[in-house]
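Renewal narrative, Specific Aim 1. Our central claim is that a sequence can be written position by position from structural information alone. The example that follows is taken directly from our test logs and has not been curated for this report. It begins with the structure tokens describing the chain, in the order in which they were read.
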């Protein structure tokens, strides 16, 4: 651990998330991990709570998306697709909504799908 009177600089959010991810992947006990990193167990616990709280608030990691535009329909398949929003999850779930969709119903649907 650090010497008395030594002031540590504040870790950024990215540094905290990286540290917590490294701990989780390490397979070490909290004590062993903290000893290796010259970190107090209390600090690690505080960082873990922050990361967990952030993940629970919907501010999780960014996910890649693919933006596809249909500027001018060039086939029957694309006809009538203007104003369509399609979201497909990694698990293969697909949600397609059209212009004027009911946002409350979509929100309810996504809540149910998140529980499954």
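The sequence written for that structure reads:
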């Amino acid at each position: 651990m650090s010497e008395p009177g030594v002031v540590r600089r504040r870790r950024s959010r990215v540094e905290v998330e990286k540290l917590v991810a490294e701990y989780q992947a390490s397979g070490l006990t909290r004590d062993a991990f903290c000893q290796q990193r010259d970190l107090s167990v209390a600090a690690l616990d505080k960082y873990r709570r922050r990361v967990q709280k952030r993940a629970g608030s919907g501010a999780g990691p960014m996910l890649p998306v693919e933006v596809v535009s249909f500027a001018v329909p060039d086939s029957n398949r694309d006809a009538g697709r203007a104003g369509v929003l399609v979201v497909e999850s990694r698990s293969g779930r697909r949600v397609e909504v059209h212009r004027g969709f009911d946002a409350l119903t979509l929100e309810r649907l996504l809540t149910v799908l998140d529980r499954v």
